[in-house]
Amino acid sequence: MTTKRQTLNSEKRKVIADVFQNHFEDNSKYKKQHQDAITNYNLMREQAKVKMNDLVRFHQPQEDVDTIRKMIAKYNDSGGDLHHDNCFYVQSNKPRMDKDYNGNPIEKYDEVQVKFDADCDFLTSYYRNEINAKGLDADYDVRVDHSGKDKSPTYYKSETNVRNYLGYGSRNDATNHLYHKDEWENDFKIWVIGTSYCHSRQFQTKDYAWFNKFKVAQENVIMAHKNLFANVERKMEKLRMGLKSYRYFDQAKELADKLGVVLNESVLNESSSMALSIYSPTNLADLLTDEVEQTREEKIAIAKQLLREQQQQEEYAYKDIN
After folding, report:
1. N or C terminus: which one in the chain shows less Cβ crowding within 10 Å?
2. Nearest C-alpha neighbor of 109 from the set 198, 219, 210, 208
3. SS3 content of the chain, % helix, strand, coil (to 5)
4. Distance in angstroms (rounded) separating the CA atoms of residues 88 and 201
């Protein structure tokens, strides 16, 4: 008795492609580099907190801060300015020779901005695994950079979803939900003399080179994210083209075996890749909480996909019989 060959369609090819992509990511050297970049940044961040506190207090002693606080209590706005800051400009303590707009020699001090909060691009790279596990697309921006294509409606939808998840977009603060953006903004602050304008203060230090490395460590997290995506995507572009030419599962299985990818036919037993995505353990847990209710549109989309999948299977079965 011959075993019937499992026929592929677009949805099953998508499921198979996801298996390959997970394999490529898990075995990519760039995945470790991304994690190492995050680990290195975390270590330097803790050191930077100590160094920055010492640097600010050296230039602005605590007794001066206390004095201005008393003056403000007595004279209100006329008493001076204090700001609880997480943004600083660190300046080298030795000038270098440069030229002004007229070509005349001038001394300049190198400076670097050191921020203990974070922008959306950095946190998207920092929390990439977490964001993707939530069913969102943390690669939406690096994907456009890699492809060179114009931003599509899908891009802007993904951008909105990620920004909302991190706390940069629309939000319902009445729920008292602490977003990642809030965590980073409140993680480390120092009372400084002056207004909220960060660039109005430059703190000179002999450790300028170290703070510059700390800035680079933050940029390396984003760069490692880009490298990881690009490395995997180059392989996936070729894989998707190959899968389009495969009609049967055993063809994809042969390829998987050659590449050491664990691919079993049971992965296709689910109704569709959409169902696999929506009912993954993480997303299903979210759907079963009181806060998350599956929308009518999501239910309709799943029903349509299941019907389309069933019709496609019936068509292939009819062709095989005839």
Report:
1. N
2. 208
3. 65, 10, 25
4. 7
pLDDT in tens, 95-143: 998 888 888 889 999 999 999 999 999 999 999 999 999 999 999 999 9
Cα–Cα distance list, 258 to 12, 190, 243, 296 (Å)? 20, 57, 15, 43
Q: What is the CA radius of gyration of the chain?
A: 27
Could you say which DSSP state residue 7 is in?
Answer: B
Got the DSSP string for 196-256?
Answer: S-GGG-EEEETTHHHHHHHHHHHHHHHHHHHHHHHHHHHHHHHHHHHHHT--BHHHHHHHH
Residues with Cβ within 8 Å of residue 191, at least 6 apart in sequence: 65, 82, 83, 84, 85
92 strand-pairing partners: 205
Instruction: Report the C-alpha gap between 258 and 256 in whole angstroms.
Output: 5
Amino acid making up residue 47: Q
Alpha carbon 97 to its chain centroid, in Å, reads 39
First to last CA, the chain: 18
Residues in CB range of 118: below 8 A, 6 or more apart: 126, 181, 184, 218
Separation CA 54–CA 224 (nearest Å): 31
pLDDT digits (tens, 9 = 90+) for 245-287: 999 999 999 999 999 999 988 887 754 444 444 444 555 455 4
